[in-house]
Amino acid sequence: MTAPLLDVEDLRVRFHLRTGTVEAVRGVTFKLGRERLGIVGESGSGKSQTGRAILGLTPPPGEVEARRLAFDGIDLLTASRRTLRALRGGRISMVMQDPKYSLNPVMPIGEQIIEAYQAHKKAGKGEARDRALAMLEAVKMRDPGRVFALYPHEVSGGMGQRAMIAMMLVTEPDLLIADEPTSALDVTVSMEILRILDELVSERGMGLIFISHDLKLVSSFCDRVLVMYAGRVVEEIEARNLRDARHPYTQGLMRCLPTLKDDVRPLPTLNRDPAWAL
Q: What's this model's pTM, rounded to 2 decimal places?
């Protein structure tokens, strides 16, 4: 049996605040191979904090615990800072939510991609430039040479998303964590971004964690889905079987999705059971 690329067991993220302790992630467990795993749930369910904890990016005063948190056999909880720096951006990359605003506003896009590549690869400026241009072309950027010289404020939202994805993929990582990379885009650009991710994951054999609140999108794009509520996983299901979900929270989310066929008034709402959070 092939060992998982990522092994997460009983992951917990808590924040000690003046008003008390908040448990953002509570006992999350899953394994990931070279596949597309969707993590869905409402805002505040712990999706993004799960992704950040994997990369060791939980901000203070956050605290991360787990029985096991391993990437390709490397224990991420006990790894040295040097090892974690080599992994982040090298073998594991993360596209943050609304990634255009993760770009440096005073540095040309091409130079930022070169910087990311040279941080993890022993390469000269010429080789790094060629790789940056190749990645801009891989994410379907028109006229990569022109975009290479532009600053972030000179490109559209969709172009900024693709530039950030190019930066995260230029080192050819084994795992990509995408935190709602299409949430701020219109439908046409969103589908283009998804096609790019699909092609790159298939061609490069990467593992993908796709964090989203869009159940329809996840059901059509991912292989498996984790449904999170109040910091914990309430259901794990094959994406194609999402409509057959058994947990009442997942069922409620599916019923709340609007459709073009039915004119339902008033729109259905989700009635939460306090027991779901236990």
A: 0.90
